[in-house]
Prior knowledge:
By secondary structure, the chain is mainly α. The chain has helices at 3-21, 29-44, 49-70, 75-85, 88-103, 107-113, 127-174, 186-195, 197-210, 218-228, 237-248, 276-303, and strands spanning 252-258, 261-268. It has one domain (3-303).
Amino acid sequence: MRSGVSTAVGLLAGFALDRILGDPRRGHPVAGFGMLAAAVETMTYADRRRAGIVHEALLVGAVVGAGVMVRRGGALPMALATWTVLGGRSLERTGEAMVRRLERGDVAGARELLPALCGRDPEVLDADGLARAALESIAENTSDAAVAPLLWGAVAGVPGLLGYRAVNTLDAMIGYRNVRYRRFGWAAARADDIANLLPARVTGLLTAVVAPAVGGRPREVVRIWRRDAGRHPSPNAGVVEASAAGALGIRLGGRTEYRHGIEQRPELGDGPPPAVADLRRAVQLSKLVQYAALAPAVALAVARCRPRRA
């Protein structure tokens, strides 16, 4: 089977496995990589950018190298790698669980669940605050956990899938601007920004396409994206959050409380602040965008096997 076709078949099979099974409950390879990265950090850490660059290159390079070694196996390793890297179904399940708890007034249960979605301090949030935190996280992670892996897999096969997840995981571990990681985590944060530049914008376009299914209008999505995305401190989160705000007709951003302190995030969108009902629509929007992302990913993969003209 030609490489582009086997890549496309592997993407489709891996996506199906993610929809059916979600993330493995035990022994997830991404969790294993996180443990390895934490162990390596004890040897590479220094309060310098150069040390962070070495740390990033060592770990991402090792993962990409492993992907290169197994990619010749055809569609099967591609399918398994896709399933391992995708997290869209688990993201939906967590969002749905959050909706159910908030709808029955179980604020304490929703607070217990929030750390599975984001790093905000749940103890200071009421029901609407929990809904907003979950909604913003679902919008951002639709790109990180689903659209970006599919696109990187389509372009670069198994090495692209594994390399992207390594970059994204390292950013989640050390890509912070606190005292310990301001310098050491700089490379991880920048690498993640670069890896998500195109996927975030594809996510924004797909959000516009499927917006009518959740009561939105494509033109409004594009308008809010163009007007508000640049206000966000992240070049990629601003795109996907502004697009989601436009599709759902709500306003995101504002006072945001983390365990390490308080940030005043720029407001995105023109509508009212999100309520619990909007979180249910956001979960549906995430699901639709994930399915929509399959088309460009498969098209890219198949395009790789077309013979070039002399």
